[in-house]
Amino acid sequence: MNSLKSLSDKELTGRLRQLVSKEQSLTLSILPHLAEVERRSLHLEKAYSTLTDYCIWELGYGDSSASRRVRAARVISKIPEVYGLLKNRKLTFSSVQT
Predict the structure, then answer these.
(1) Can you give the pLDDT at residue 17?
(2) How far apart are alpha carbons 25 and 20 in whole angstroms?
(3) What is d(CA 27, CA 61) in angstroms, rounded to the nearest whole number?
(4) What's the pTM value of the predicted model, to 2 decimals?
(5) Would you say residue 20 has pLDDT above 80?
(6) Closest CA to 78 of 29, 26, 20, 39
């Protein structure tokens, strides 16, 4: 982290934007995986009664982060077009409702 102190403001904010873009891309990649875990009921095999509990206790998400991801995963499995809207930032995870 100390190496960040040597970056110029422009370099720091540029790197941050790159990281956020990668984070968003990874999060979008996670959604279909969560939908497939639920479709296969793999969370039940791990003794989690809900996919949200699986996300919290097995994957380490906080309550609200897990809920948003599960909700979005369920919606994109039913309405695939929503994935594109999320990818193009026309929707946010918190705006996706089941």
Answers:
(1) 96
(2) 9
(3) 12
(4) 0.84
(5) yes
(6) 39
